[in-house]
Design goal:
- It is a single chain.
- The protein is an alpha+beta fold.
- It folds into two domains: about 160 residues, no CATH class; about 110 residues, no CATH class.
- About 45% of the residues lie in helices and about 15% in strands.
- It is built from twelve helices and eight strands.
- The strands form two sheets. It has a six-stranded antiparallel β-sheet. A two-stranded antiparallel ribbon has the order 7-8.
- The radius of gyration is 22 Å and the shape is elongated.
- It starts with a strand and ends with a helix.
- About 30% of the residues are buried.
Length: about 280
């Protein structure tokens, strides 16, 4: 079943997370002002991307790599049909090294995926079980959640947009209690370790001796990839009833925090809202 929607309702980070967790295979198309971007998945991992610009075709990216010999460029131009990813084809014949291939794959992700994280809206369509074209495949792949956090980092560097960042006094709870297997930066990892209902973002920054703005950015990225969620301010403000309640009658906040610790196998509210938005987009 195809999936249709708009990035104004479901973020690209949420889409990549969902596809990785569901081990989706197929093609995601995203419409932008520049044209149509295409991202191919195999069992939840990104295996190829393509922007609307002709200079971003994989063969062109390979030819633009200065370390590749001109003989290889000539070889690439003679290829019209393949029965394996072009990157594997070239690597088997020692035309390109693993490090060169990795450099080209990073460039492919940059122009064909990471730039899309700056979009605030744009229609998307996912067609399941569509095989990726071999002439756009390096043979390498990247997990959706790793790609999401990398894309968020790069967009932050380009836009310096701080309006969506959590406030210094925001507090979070962990959605994932096990150590994440994502390729987190040192700050992201240390911030995740400090996440607890008693620690505000400001407190975490002080404990880590890190810049407050950078800590807010790190917490925002952790929130976007589904590792933490913000605790609403209404649950952190004690009421007169809460202040006078007896030990036998736990406060609303105590109930909420107790529940959050035992929800490792239950959908939290944030994920439920995200899933609801995704399900609405299915046609």
């Amino acid at each position: 079943m195809a999936m249709l929607g708009d990035l104004s309702e479901v973020s690209l980070a949420d889409i990549l997370q969902m596809f990785e967790r569901a081990a989706k295979t197929g093609q995601l198309s995203i419409w932008s002002q520049n044209g149509i971007y295409r991202i191919w998945f195999f069992q939840g991992r990104i295996v190829a991307t393509l922007s609307p610009e002709k200079q971003h075709l994989l063969k062109q990216l390979l030819m633009d790599c200065q370390d590749i010999d001109q003989e290889v460029i000539a070889q690439i131009n003679t290829l019209f049909s393949l029965n394996e990813p072009i990157g594997i084809f070239l690597k088997k014949r020692a035309y390109i090294s693993a490090s060169q291939l990795a450099t080209v794959f990073r460039k492919q992700l940059q122009v064909g995926l990471y730039d899309l994280f700056a979009l605030q809206s744009g229609q998307f369509r996912f067609a399941p079980n569509v095989s990726p074209p071999f002439d756009e495949m390096t043979g390498m792949s990247k997990g959706g959640m790793d790609a999401a956090i990398e894309g968020l980092r790069r967009v932050e560097l380009q836009t310096q947009n701080h309006k969506n960042l959590p406030l210094p006094d925001s507090i979070f709870t962990k959605i994932v209690t096990e150590p994440p297997i994502l390729k987190l930066s040192d700050l992201e990892w240390n911030a995740w370790m400090q996440i607890a209902p008693q620690n505000s973002v400001r407190v975490i920054a002080q404990r880590l001796n890190s810049d407050l703005l950078e800590t807010r950015k790190a917490c925002y990225r952790l929130m976007q990839v589904g590792l933490i969620e913000e605790i609403p301010a209404s649950l952190t403000q004690p009421t007169d009833q809460a202040l006078t309640s007896s030990p036998e009658k736990p406060t609303t906040l105590q109930k909420e925090l107790k529940t959050s610790k035992s929800e490792s196998s239950t959908l939290n509210l944030t994920l439920l809202k995200r899933l609801t938005s995704v399900l609405k987009s299915i046609r």
